[in-house]
Design brief:
By secondary structure, the protein is α+β, with helices and mostly antiparallel strands. It is built from six helices and eleven strands. Helices cover 28% and strands 32% of the residues. The chain has an eleven-stranded mixed beta sheet with strand order 4-3-2-1-5-6-8-9-10-11-7.
């Protein structure tokens, strides 16, 4: 599956990941130590952070603590020999505190998040479902930035809900090691960030953030 198709299908694959399904979902778990565990089935009905899986050789479902897992990937149903995107859990830092330099990290990790753009600066998505008996199920989309050298992820502010000044402040800090994008942000202000979303900025569309982070990775200052 190509990257452009990944952007379009991210929300759908995440919904499928969270859905209750009796169908086995094969994949690979990569542990913190670098060991790769080939699984006949990874339990996608995850509500906690630990992972349950079955080995290819069969047997009972095994449970592995999240802290022992670096990430896992599922095989695509339409390309059963090709692994899909990474799923990780992170400690989280609030965006406003990160901008101010108050590096206070959450005490517990967030739930499993799907990688939309991978390394060196990665973009992750997590969808939180909320059920109301009167209105049904609604979904909240949250996006996170993670760098290889970080042991946490920073939540990206809801761009359509923040004041322009706060959006510029967030990306000014993010672009500190990218003179190309920082110069454009300083010159154009909020409109530079908005340009990645075009008419979709009010929807929080993942395509806009994916495009922005891809451009960031492509132009980041080389050491």
């Amino acid at each position: 599956m190509r990257l452009k198709n990944l952007f379009l299908s991210a929300a759908f694959s995440l919904a499928s990941f969270l859905a209750v399904s009796a169908k086995d979902t094969p994949g690979v778990i990569t542990t913190v130590g670098g060991e790769k565990i080939e699984c006949a089935d990874i339990d996608t009905r995850i509500f906690g952070k630990d992972l349950k899986y079955k080995l290819v050789s069969g047997g009972d479902r095994i449970e592995l603590a999240q802290d022992k897992i670096d990430f896992f990937q599922l095989y695509y149903s339409d390309a059963p020999t090709e692994l899909g995107t990474k799923w990780r859990c992170f400690y989280v830092m609030d965006d406003s505190k990160w901008v101010k330099g108050e590096n206070k990290i959450s005490k517990s990790k967030m739930g499993w998040a799907q990688c939309l753009v991978d390394a060196p600066t990665s973009l992750y998505l997590i969808i939180i479902s909320n059920y109301n008996p009167n209105t049904g199920t609604t979904y909240q989309y949250k996006y996170y930035i993670h760098r290889d050298e970080w042991d946490y992820a920073v939540e990206i502010p809801a761009i359509s809900k923040l004041k322009k000044k706060a959006v510029v402040a967030f990306f000014t800090k993010l672009f500190q090691n990218n003179k190309t994008m920082l110069n454009q942000l300083n010159a154009k202000g909020y409109e530079f960030i908005e340009s990645f979303f075009a008419h979709r900025i009010k929807t929080g569309d993942s395509n806009g953030l994916s495009t922005l982070i891809l451009e960031y990775n492509n132009t980041v200052d080389k050491k």
